């Protein structure tokens, strides 16, 4: 493992906490799904945590973040309150989107977290447009847009990248290549399987990185973010990763072998990072123990918050279709 | 009587855009050929020279991409006027409109406004055949979250855009290619159009002709001819197709006790279908005759002029239909 940026003990601890929070939060979510507390679709990010963590740590609070329908971890990395996310998944009005969105539509405007989009690729041009606004308004924030390799087969991916490059706007496209678009493997969806080549075709600097290694993702993301910020131009970072769980809770995983999943699990980014921190003396066993307790408390607090949440009155059904303060 | 000016529909549209660009730095126009070409229909001719490339943006043929970017820019503080050259190309960005523009406020529990304005040229009348003659207003009027307006007069051509840009919610504006060269007199000081209200274009007591878009002037001409035959028709320009100004037409029908609904869109499930249903629900006992609809004939629009004309209601069709209702 190598990274030019020296990791401080404080940051190392924060990152490990974040990775573990994502993992445990989602394991809890799966459990709550089987208990029918969470309904609808639930897409788990388990296995891919190094990507959201590694990229989002490189951002400033004023940067815009857009995610897919597999975005719990991104919201957590963006410091969206775990209780507000859990309450959202419960459909309670205390949720970050007042329960109107659910698991696939986590929004937090204060954190500049813009979803939570469930039409594959549909949010890519929004990211280009938000970056265009930054340019026109002469703001120095950048926009980061996460999507899967499945989205790279959509026409809108190509339009959004071409426009971003043509307009020279500060947007970082992060492709989370987990090898499967639902159940269709990369090799069955892309004639050219190196997604980074598609960015290069539009004149966008594009790099691929091992998405199972937090330090590598961090190094690549730091560089990419810095470049987008300095140049004001787009960048495509492809993070090659793998989801350990099913596509959603309705997926029998007929399209891949258990042995393949087991092989990838050996590359789990969390134990790898933990081991590295111990080896480098960036964390102690005592701290790890204490972290476990904090995690447990935070997750329990989130669940309690969601449980204690309330249902929005039926009378409010048609709110938020149009703005309530048309003058605003 | 205030002073009037003679103006074409095209000039009125341009005046509206120009005024908007003058009044608010955040406003910009983006669309295919809006700049160097001068607008496909010469509506934005000269604006590039006057306002520069930042405010008048030519875009590639990526309707989904640039409409999505317009939505994104509106999320991030700008007031984009996105021109989709014609409604005929609007199925390409339909996903952006239906799944992003119309849903973001709701999915985010009221956090995100989408103050984008999307203009499209629409309608029949230039012998452009099946793929270039669509009246697709009903497709958009079906979608909650959108404000859908139709520019049926010269006054609205000048006044609708500024109100639309003040809306915190997405507005789709339909303009009509076949009306561009039409000249009319409007008050020199005609101001912003109220896009929450339908407009009674002619008062009358015998029957309510309820229409929008190209139907407005046709209905007014028919009303003029009918007045020579002693029939006093009221003409209502629906103007806003979503949300419908139900009060206006229910009041009118309660006064005239008869209704003829006129539009160019295919008859099955068009705006008239909805208006008719609401009259039945709200004013059934006010009716002295069944509601009659005159809509587009259910055929892809053919090229030859005589067949094109036969595909949509003409002035004489309106005239004859009114006579049939009143003097059966």
Automatic annotation (TrEMBL), chain A:
Pfam families per record: E1_dh (PF00676)
Keywords, alphabetical: Oxidoreductase, Pyruvate, Thiamine pyrophosphate
Requisite cofactors: thiamine diphosphate
Biological process according to GO: pyruvate decarboxylation to acetyl-CoA
EC code(s) of this entry: 1.2.4.1
Enzyme class: oxidoreductase
UniProt superkingdom: Bacteria
Limits of the Dehydrogenase E1 component domain: 18-308
Reaction(s) the record says it catalyses: N(6)-[(R)-lipoyl]-L-lysyl-[protein] + pyruvate + H(+) = N(6)-[(R)-S(8)-acetyldihydrolipoyl]-L-lysyl-[protein] + CO2
GO MF terms, alphabetically ordered: pyruvate dehydrogenase (acetyl-transferring) activity
Subunit-level organization: Heterodimer of an alpha and a beta chain.
Function: The pyruvate dehydrogenase complex catalyzes the overall conversion of pyruvate to acetyl-CoA and CO(2).
NCBIfam families membership: PDH_E1_alph_y (TIGR03182)
Protein name: Pyruvate dehydrogenase E1 component subunit alpha
TrEMBL record, chain B:
Record-annotated Transketolase-like pyrimidine-binding domain positions: 7-182
Xref: Pfam families: Transket_pyr, Transketolase_C
The entry's keywords: Oxidoreductase, Pyruvate, Thiamine pyrophosphate
Keyword Oxidoreductase: yes
Oxidoreductase keyword on record: yes
Cofactors required: thiamine diphosphate
Signal peptide, first to last residue: none
Database matches in InterPro entries: THDP-binding, Transketo_C/PFOR_II, Transketolase-like_Pyr-bd, Transketolase_C
SUPFAM superfamilies: Thiamin diphosphate-binding fold (THDP-binding), TK C-terminal domain-like
GO terms, molecular function: oxidoreductase activity
Protein name: Pyruvate dehydrogenase E1 component beta subunit
Species name: Salegentibacter flavus
